[in-house]
């Protein structure tokens, strides 16, 4: 059964969506989804509690890596891209070409961008760390302002941890 919870963060209200297999998605208010899409509210579900705790630690600069079982539904290609996203180090950015190289398909930058845009697990599968080849911010489902805030947060805490 799919379940969800919500919590307040420095990015506004965040909805965490999961099931007994793992985390299915993290959604911002800007995603304009219906709560009924997520199943039943279950603030005490272990996956949701673990996710909220780790996200709060991330926002406070205390966590740079996550240990949450993931259960997002995607194609084989999307899953490969999403797995590669989890290898981008905290506080760093890659281009779409870097990501395409990481999955062993250097000519797939555009396809990688498409898979990146379908990532349902924001922050934990850090699609916000992917930028344009020229260093520009490119699309982010939560909005470019949230992407910039996440990158700024990581840059700040990355410098402090060195």
From TrEMBL:
It holds the Pfam family Methyltransf_1N. Keywords: Cytoplasm, DNA damage, DNA repair, Methyltransferase, Transferase. It comes from the Bacteria. The active site is at 127 (nucleophile). InterPro entries: MethylDNA_cys_MeTrfase_AS (IPR001497), MethylDNA_cys_MeTrfase_DNA-bd (IPR014048), MethylDNA_cys_MeTrfase_DNAb (IPR036217), MethylG_MeTrfase_N (IPR008332), MGMT (IPR023546), MGMT_N_sf (IPR036631), WH-like_DNA-bd_sf (IPR036388). It catalyses: a 6-O-methyl-2'-deoxyguanosine in DNA + L-cysteinyl-[protein] = S-methyl-L-cysteinyl-[protein] + a 2'-deoxyguanosine in DNA; a 4-O-methyl-thymidine in DNA + L-cysteinyl-[protein] = a thymidine in DNA + S-methyl-L-cysteinyl-[protein]. Its EC number is 2.1.1.63. GO terms for molecular function: methylated-DNA-[protein]-cysteine S-methyltransferase activity. Residues 3-71 form the Methylguanine DNA methyltransferase ribonuclease-like domain. Residues 76-155 form the Methylated-DNA-[protein]-cysteine S-methyltransferase DNA binding domain. It is found in: Cytoplasm. One of its GO terms (cellular component) is cytoplasm. Transmembrane segments: none annotated. SUPFAM superfamilies: Methylated DNA-protein cysteine methyltransferase domain, Methylated DNA-protein cysteine methyltransferase, C-terminal domain. One of its GO terms (biological process) is DNA alkylation repair. This enzyme catalyzes only one turnover and therefore is not strictly catalytic. According to one definition, an enzyme is a biocatalyst that acts repeatedly and over many reaction cycles. Involved in the cellular defense against the biological effects of O6-methylguanine (O6-MeG) and O4-methylthymine (O4-MeT) in DNA. Repairs the methylated nucleobase in DNA by stoichiometrically transferring the methyl group to a cysteine residue in the enzyme. This is a suicide reaction: the enzyme is irreversibly inactivated. Belongs to the MGMT family. NCBIfam families: ogt. This is Methylated-DNA--protein-cysteine methyltransferase. It comes from Moritella marina ATCC 15381.
